[in-house]
Specification:
Length: 819
């Protein structure tokens, strides 16, 4: 009983500690560093869960604590809106906490299973992947995620342009895992606990380093900035006012207030454009429902013409299908130029799903709306009085919590975001309005588009491309916000190029992990047992006997060549023109990779030899030259810690001479030497270093046929190029042999060769990215879990094969089907 009570108290204490930190973290300000530690107490509780049922129970409790700590205001606002009371609203929200925050349940489930099958490192990675994959598949109503809490840090939030807020969340989760692991090992001494703690520190250090680079690379302001007047009228509760004053009087008051503030913005503050909030004009514009509505429409057009600047405002639009929450673009002299229709409607308030709708529901929930959703992002030209034309992306309320809409707008050429929101239902809960603005600000960071955001009574602001608020309001005040914001063609961020990719990548990682776990053929061998080696050498082995200078020269050439591949990856991601210029890619690939790689190969060739074992001796032969070393004279054999310019071993004789032998499979040679009577590879059993564990993991690997250069860099690109070239011929020439019929065989074969070359370069670059990831993860495993480095390396290699030989074809097929 005492043990049970102790476990209960420990569980409650851990969840309450995490919940308290969540409450502080959600409120922003100086509490943002808590994001790197706030889940650590809960993770310690999960680690102590003896069964899966106990793990799920603790996940459910944490979902309750998280919801209460960060989103009690949401339940209160819903209760007040639905007229059932704030307390009832909070109770209903807590009851639905596992549905409101399902990532806790999925995270705990996946982490528990992976932790027990594959160890702590993969358990942490799988848990983080499950978290963001769940949020990608079932995003919350407010798009909330842990990464939003890093917004107060101008430096760390810049990483959102690479992986979005999901990428920030992954780093936060991994940092929390490191802190939890350090707490678990503190009894073993500070040196043991320091490793996971140092791994946890990598997350903020990486984000800070990237933030410094991103902020320093921001282009200087160029040209005339865009000056927009944001109208926050602080007029709320339209429905209640209609009942008290009548519709005409309410619309009259709203328009008079907005007209007066817009006059101030244009005449006194010299604004280039005016932005009103969501549903500021609370009836249909351009499709009046009455003569009074037509008069109001004409009055707005007259005001815009007199102002001489474009107006953008929230209103309603309608067609034969129904009504829409919309944004109207009105130009002086041209009138209404277009509508943007809100894409993401709030369920049960702005719309009801068709399968749930009906008279009975409408009677029970009389506040439910019946608006129709729009059909995605649209970019409109904002024509200014000075002749400039700036493409802008409008977003309405919940639209700004969806990264995909902002990304689509950036791809369509937008140079600024215009956000409209009616945050009046946050009136009693300013924290909700603040969270909403934070979510909106991340859209600017992800796309590097500045943003103008107008709300009825919430937080209106002008936001720059780094997510910073240049000018803003407080909650519940009537105020005009004026700000000059630089507007330019934005840089192409990775989020714009790849989309909101982290959740999809996390889901793919989980599928690969599940496949490797379920398919016996892909299960790695025991962690300490390298593959058995045939101790009889069937023939001479190709090696290179390198002097220190030759090894350094070849190693530097290889480092430059392989580093150039990573640089090319980043260059292609950021330069859209280069991605479509195959000849430029080939020139770059040849100059920065093939040339230094060929030079390194030449160095190895100049020092090449044939190695064999005969009559108790190691024999090195090249042409007529021959060096014979008695195995009894070999004092030590060591694997190279750094496999540069390729894997190899160092042989030291009893007399002190040293030979550096570079070869493809040093593990097999070392086994042959030991089997023939030579010494075994020397290792430090008393203090095994990180690089020794890393080298041992590389030594234990046996390359498969899939690793052969012909299979990887010739046949795989060919298999990818054929369907891609076929699709190109269909689209460009109307048939599979269209270019042949139009321009002849030479042109047709030349075009195919270019496609093949382009895919070969793409496969090489993809392989380089996978290789860097595998080597980095292996090095991290050798640091954190040296005893499991071989096991982890084997799993990573198999995952790399799946990603390259199945992932690339799957991506190509998906692209073809979309086309």
């Amino acid at each position: 009983m005492a043990l049970l009570n102790h476990a209960t108290v420990r569980t409650a204490g851990g969840i309450l500690a995490s919940g308290a930190m969540v409450a502080l973290y959600a409120r922003g300000g100086v509490a943002w560093p808590l994001g790197f530690v706030l889940l650590a107490p809960w993770l310690r509780i999960l680690d102590a869960s003896p069964t899966l049922a106990a793990t799920l129970l603790r996940a459910w409790l944490m979902s309750l604590a998280y919801t209460a700590a960060a989103f009690a205001w949401f339940g209160s606002a819903l209760g007040i809106y639905a007229q059932v009371g704030a307390a009832t609203g909070v109770a209903l929200l807590l009851l639905a906490a596992p549905l409101f925050q399902p990532q806790f349940i999925v995270f705990a489930l996946v982490r528990h299973i992976t932790l027990r099958r594959h160890g702590a490192v993969l358990g942490a990675l799988a848990g983080a992947a499950a978290w963001v994959a769940t949020q990608a598949a079932a995003p919350g109503l407010l798009g909330d995620t842990l990464g939003h809490g890093l917004y107060p840090s101008r430096l760390l939030r810049q990483g959102a342009d690479v992986g979005g807020t999901a990428g920030l969340t992954v780093l936060l989760l991994l940092a929390n895992e490191g802190v939890a692991a350090a707490l678990a090992r503190r009894a073993d001494g500070w040196r043991v606990a320091a490793r996971p703690l140092a791994a946890a520190a990598l997350a903020p250090l990486l984000l800070a380093g990237y933030g410094l680079v991103a902020l320093s690379a921001s282009p200087a302001p160029a040209g005339k900035p865009l000056r927009v007047g944001l109208i926050q009228s602080n007029i709320v509760a339209y429905d209640r006012q209609r009942q008290e004053k009548g519709t005409h009087a309410v619309v009259r008051e709203i328009l008079d207030t907005h007209f007066a503030m817009s006059y101030d913005a244009v005449v006194r503050q010299r604004a280039d454009a005016v932005l009103w909030p969501e549903t500021a004009y609370p009836t249909t514009f351009g499709h009046p429902k009455s003569e009074a509505g037509a008069d109001f429409d004409r009055e707005i057009l007259a005001i815009v013409n007199a102002a001489g600047v474009p107006f953008v405002f929230g209103t309603y639009d309608r067609d034969s299908a129904g009504e829409y929450n919309a944004a109207a673009f009105v130009q002086p002299g041209a009138g209404l130029t277009g509508f943007y229709r809100k894409t993401h409607l709030f369920p049960l308030t702005e719309y009801v799903p068709a399968w749930l709708d009906g008279p009975r529901l409408r009677r029970a929930l009389p506040w439910t709306g019946d608006w129709r959703p729009g059909n995605g992002a649209r970019v409109f030209p904002l024509r200014l009085a000075d002749g400039r034309e700036i493409p802008v992306l409008p977003l309405i309320c919940l639209d700004d919590v969806d990264p995909a809409l902002a990304i689509d707008g950036a791809r369509l050429g937008a140079q600024a975001i215009l956000t409209m929101s009616n945050d009046s239902w946050f009136s009693a809960s300013p924290l909700g309005a603040e969270m909403h603005q934070v979510a909106a600000a991340f859209r600017s960071i992800e796309t590097r588009l500045p943003q103008f955001r107008a709300t009825t009574n919430g937080y209106s602001a002008a936001i720059d491309a780094t997510g910073g608020v240049l000018a803003g309001t407080r909650m519940g005040e009537r105020i005009l916000v004026i700000a000059d914001v630089p507007v330019r063609v934005p840089p192409r961020t990775l989020m714009v190029i790849w989309g909101d990719w982290v959740g999809l990548a996390a889901g793919a990682f989980l599928l690969v992990l599940a496949a490797c776990s379920a398919w016996p053929a892909w299960r790695p061998r025991a962690a300490h047992a390298p593959a058995p080696v045939d101790l009889s050498m069937p023939g001479p082995v190709d090696v290179a006997v390198l002097s220190p200078a030759a090894r350094m020269a070849a190693g530097l050439l290889r480092v430059f060549a392989r580093g150039s591949l990573l640089w090319m990856c980043m260059t292609l991601l950021l330069d859209e023109a280069l991605r479509t210029n195959t000849l430029a890619q080939m020139r770059m690939f040849s100059a920065f990779f093939l040339a230094p790689e060929a030079a390194a190969w030449c160095v190895l060739f100049l020092f090449s030899a044939k190695l064999s074992l005969a009559d108790g001796s190691l024999v090195l032969a090249r042409d007529a030259r021959r060096l014979q070393i008695a195995l009894a004279d070999i004092a030590t054999v060591r694997c190279w810690r750094l496999p540069l310019p390729c894997p190899g071993i160092s042989v030291r004789l009893a007399g002190g001479q040293r030979y550096a032998l570079a070869l493809t499979d040093p593990g097999a040679l070392a086994a042959h030497l030991a089997g023939a009577g030579g010494p075994a590879i020397q290792q430090r059993t008393h203090s095994r270093t990180v690089m020794q564990a890393y080298a041992q993991a590389a030594l234990a690997m046996r390359r498969s046929r899939l690793d052969h250069p012909v299979a990887k860099f010739v046949l795989l690109p060919l298999a990818l190029a054929i369907p891609a070239f076929h699709l190109h011929q269909q689209i460009s020439y109307g048939g599979p042999f269209g270019e042949y019929y139009s321009f002849g065989l030479k042109a047709y074969l030349t075009a195919f060769a270019l496609w093949w070359a382009a895919w070969a370069i793409g496969v090489v670059l993809s392989g380089a990215l996978l290789r860097s990831a595998i080597e980095s993860a292996t090095l991290l495993a050798a640091w954190l879990r040296p005893a499991r480095a071989v096991d982890i390396r084997q799993r990573l290699e198999r995952g790399g094969h799946l990603a390259l030989f199945l992932g690339l074809p799957a991506w190509l097929l998906l692209t073809i089907f979309r086309a």
